[in-house]
């Protein structure tokens, strides 16, 4: 079913056929076919056409949702026919292929072959179809996919395409293809499927228990069809259709060996078949039948399925191809389960190698020697002992480190340790800091470094006796001997130029060109700053912030302001020499807010007036940063620049940019240039900024292309943040901007930071991802670092590890606090080492893995074509899973997809990454958006990437109104939306309120204060404040969601069937996306195929 | 015409002209043999209270290469209404306005007493005066305070329509925008970077607004006389703003560490000032007034580094070629000066510091543009304050004594050519028929630009007789010279002053006596001195002295009466008698001697020497010494050590200094307090007399001289002792013990020795 979702671009359709072949082969399989992705779609389309025809039936069109079911039934006949075919082919493939007739040419062979093999498909298939050919599994898969591809087609016909509603299918996506308009209907199927499946599931269920294995509906293409087919086998999937039980049940508690489970259960498939068939019919049938007609050819290709061509092919026994979406691993379920099982107990960090609860779970941490997962999360808590193992598994070894993470109030923030004048105690050789893993020997007179094994003398003032276990008697009195995270006070040796730092400074640099003035931005900002300056971050109980502030405005030239407290009026100093920027004043530029309050207020009052009549539209950019940096340099302090910028800097100056936006580059080898900065100026500048401890936060208010890729270079390399408000209008965006601004100004920041990750012998940090600068290969330099900034570190083996001693990480962050104190924050983490791959797979964390993979991919697009990057991801994922299958899972049919318990969400999440805007941009996604997202993701932590890639979808009216907790989320798929309900969707950046068309009038009234659905303004961004429980609850929920995220999420109200809905649907990540992203089910099939190929 | 002395004086008063020779040798050969060139000192704007300007425009000769102005020397045919140009002999029609002309109804310019006449040109736009203050902020607190007060005071002296602008500099250069309210706004430039005029204008945002302004001005000059940039505003509009702005001026905030000089970007500040005016008001009268309290220490035009341990260059360094920055800095300022001159603006420099401030490098800024150069110890001295105030003094008409953007054109009759000019001017490079190929001073042109001038500004103009010996000039005929000075009067009127003079030709062979009698030794001394100083700027000191000596000897040989090889027989006629003495003092003067003077001081002295009128120049060459005693009324005495007597009070005026020196006895009396005793009231009066006279001089002079009050044995007595002729030194002991004066401890030769040598050389055949 899923399949349907993705809406392939029209063009593809046209060609589909030819492609087809490719599709099967390569597309999924990664086979040679050049045009992988697109083609695949094309394939779909291809088929589609056929379908349409076939389906003749207006039926297909059937309005939306019209419950698929009904429709399906109607069509059923046809569908069945189609199925029949499938069945034979084994498979779904059959069907699809049929559609493709033309394609055949090229593809035909492939098909054929695959099909043949398909037959072979294991048990599963067999059951179904008379496995004509005893194709091997692989074949099956292949076949499946194919069919899948076709499958979609079928669906259309079947269901009435009510596109929207019926998530079902991907068909929805099809709609795009103009011609295929009819297709859309395909979607209907989904629904139907569900129904159909149910039957099936049961059987499956039984099987599934264990593992979350899925059956790989291998036939990726085919989405449902294939799935179904597979299901049987995989049972896992199919089984729990509705309830997802499979996963759930299996996964949770039972810490079964991940892999294993699957297999067992799967067995059961057979039963399914029978059931499924019905289901099938419903869905696809209609479509198929018809479709087929046209494409007689198909039949041929498929050995078994000649039927295809002959639509009538009745009853192929329902090739159960469909994969029930409910049967495949559900993120929602996994999250819920983890919450239920691990949310109640505190996570105690004393034990080495424990996997922490998921980021989505609320839990408390007790630091007993290892750093809290809030600071460090690893992809795996069990590291293979040898690099060979690591290579085999292909599981990246990475840690996602958030050194200054904010802790919930219940947890104590790290203790500050002062080792006096001699500074923190460190290993003489590797310079690691004293930590709980250091081994004291010789009665406490010496200690052996746990990282490099060097034996060091304990300085006399630090000496302490050991107890009988070899622990220091004072171990529990000293945080550095008992805790995973703590801070040292740094001595002057740790300071720049051997001088204790001065308190940092904030410089506000405001674009006052025509655009900024016209939108009211300047006035708004100045007004806000007046009060905001009272909330500069301060440390501990300090009465007032130590931070000094300065102001600059600019357009083509820069205006500095002297706001010295002794002045009656601020003085403006204009620097026009942008080619050679300098700071025109020293005294009076950076001031204490309270001392200069009157002058500052006067300045902020006057700025909007002074520039009210400006005609200047050109701006500069690099000189502005340069100026801020020079100012900090002159004041000899670190600090942060807040830049408020509106347009592409085209004025003559260093860092001048050209408009180079060119959508034609997308999907070409040159696409990467869109992500690369236009000029090297900014990198050089960033380097200087970092050297000065000058962090840059950039607020962008573009009306058009501003080249975010270039402008964000400096923020990115200096540990700053970028905020972008496209087409900023005070009325609409004020709240979001001000909220972000407030948070950004008030947040606690560390300045001029250097982070170093030390590891025990055997592994070594080799790669770093995030917003920072590195001048050598080990030190991560961050001009500024806030609580949200995350650095992902990848490790590689450089020696054997020892199971006994495990592996240690120590992350040391040297920074200047916002009060100007120089400190070292230390996080220690001990990991287990394993000689069994199973241990590795059992101790993985998928969210972290995705965080790493996303960052890896997002960096990859700078240097490689996007397609390559995508393929790499898919390959790696397939390798990881194949390795598991091969080494850890109990033997089972090759047609089964078996996933490790810890990684069962890997495919769905990875698919989300693959179809994210950066890797697969939709038509409405601008180049700037992609660059923006790309750099955002770079410094996201695990929780952020998790929700960013797999948005939360919360139904609002299901749970009782009085309940105060967040309603349980539902899966991000159109199928899950009920048109009688209202949903909230958030991904950390966006917030949508989706209103179903048939939502109760009362609900509409109490939420929107209008009489009916049709009166709700589309694109509304604020809910009226109404005094009724529902309104309060929804607004309360929105507020609480916003509070959880580091950026303010602007609300967009989307009505069902409204034009804005397209936007919204883009976030339904389990569905096929408009830009060609696969549906979950399709992808799973695809993945299965890949795995099978690897295994064979 | 009685005596030549009277004639000369009369001419000077009427025309502001003094010639070295008042009878002109009629051939080139003879002229060169007369040693002192035919030249004149011209004070183009000499104050003539008795000469109201005429309100019409001059009549020009129609020959394009001539363009001489109708003058009393022209022959007029009243019948035909024609006049003949006395320079090119072109016959011209009178313009229609002169239709009523007749022998009894002559226009002023034809009357002999109007050999100098001033016309007011009515057409053309009138542009306001512009004053652009360029203020150094690297000053001590009290210095800055004093300067601020002076500047604020000056605002009240300016004409209300005048445009003012303010640039301040230290480490950075700030151009203050004066039109804004509420928030004071300035454009800041880095002090280390040289910018082209275009860059400056772009950065100040002048490029665009300048265009409409220039178009608008001609159209409606009356209604929008002050369309201006934001940086130059009429004083009446922004009086308060500017006063406040000046009041709030802070010292340069950038820290100066121990052992460093403050970073001072004078070079860039000037460059910006010049660029600003260039872009907004080219060819309009404008004064850039630079106030600086120390040497430029960074950027283009830097004179010395900021390390205090490296002192600023001295003459010694310059001779040794050790002045690292001098050449480059000089070049920078020269370029600025040329640009400023081309735009018709002038630059004043007010340098007040105890150490040097780089006047040597910057001198061309004032010298080429006719600006003032003032040197003092501090802005907090009356010397500066009053000098500065005096710039805004007014004449009998209530007009400022300043004029701008003048062009001086010299026309000669065909026997003469003009060889050059020395004074605060630049060449306009206009080659005409009357331009000599030989250059004396700034030559090769018949027109010069004098961007800023006042009633005392005086140029030395040098001529060459080109009439060949074999083409005698008819007896009784006269040569004529016409000076046409077009300038912008301080009332913003355009004016043209025309001076036409004529002198008789004389045949040297037959009329040597007459020519001798017509020698003006004072003018000649000053003119020769100017030549000497002009050479000294580019040559080594000794060469110049040698040249001067040779000229003097040759003059003596030519005009002395003597028997060969008999020094005792040497005599000079009255007309030449003082000349050798002038030369003696000139040789000792700071204009040619750099010993004991810093390069800045030398530049300062030379600057003034090259622009003051004859009287002042003579004082500079040979200071005046007055004696006050009980023996009689005050009297001038010889500038000689023998004049320094115990019972006298001496008052010496060297132009740059006024020294009052109490003789030994007088000083003792004063210490004893006799002046306070009623019975010695006459002593009190005696003490007071020189003070009063000194005050009188102080009041009248620009720049205000340094006032020194000292006594016998006082350390400041050196000012006196270094000037007097050392007739008594430790070497000629005969004076010891006598009441004849004070010995001077010096190895310099005395006037007597000098004269003896001169005689010996003059009578010998060697030269």
UniProtKB/TrEMBL annotation, chain A:
Residues 90-106, 166-176 have a biased composition (Polar residues). Residues 750-833 form the Sec23/Sec24 beta-sandwich domain. CDD domains: Sec24-like (cd01479). GO terms for biological process: COPII-coated vesicle cargo loading; intracellular protein transport. It is found in: Cytoplasm, Cytosol; Cytoplasmic vesicle, COPII-coated vesicle membrane; Endoplasmic reticulum membrane. Residues 846-945 form the Sec23/Sec24 helical domain. Residues 501-745 form the Sec23/Sec24 trunk domain. Residues 8-19 have a biased composition (Pro residues). GO terms for cellular component: COPII vesicle coat; cytosol; endoplasmic reticulum exit site; endoplasmic reticulum membrane. It comes from the Eukaryota. Residues 60-77 have a biased composition (Low complexity). Belongs to the SEC23/SEC24 family. SEC24 subfamily. This is Protein transport protein Sec24C.
TrEMBL record, chain B:
One of its GO terms (molecular function) is zinc ion binding. Pfam families: Gelsolin, Sec23_BS, Sec23_helical, Sec23_trunk, zf-Sec23_Sec24. It is found in: Cytoplasmic vesicle, COPII-coated vesicle membrane; Endoplasmic reticulum membrane; Cytoplasm, Cytosol. It comes from the Eukaryota. It is a peripheral membrane protein. Belongs to the SEC23/SEC24 family. SEC23 subfamily. Residues 520-618 form the Sec23/Sec24 helical domain. Residues 403-506 form the Sec23/Sec24 beta-sandwich domain. The lineage of its organism: Eukaryota, Metazoa, Chordata, Craniata, Vertebrata. This is Protein transport protein SEC23. It comes from Chinchilla lanigera (Long-tailed chinchilla). Component of the coat protein complex II (COPII) which promotes the formation of transport vesicles from the endoplasmic reticulum (ER). The coat has two main functions, the physical deformation of the endoplasmic reticulum membrane into vesicles and the selection of cargo molecules for their transport to the Golgi complex. CDD domains: Sec23-like, Sec23_C.
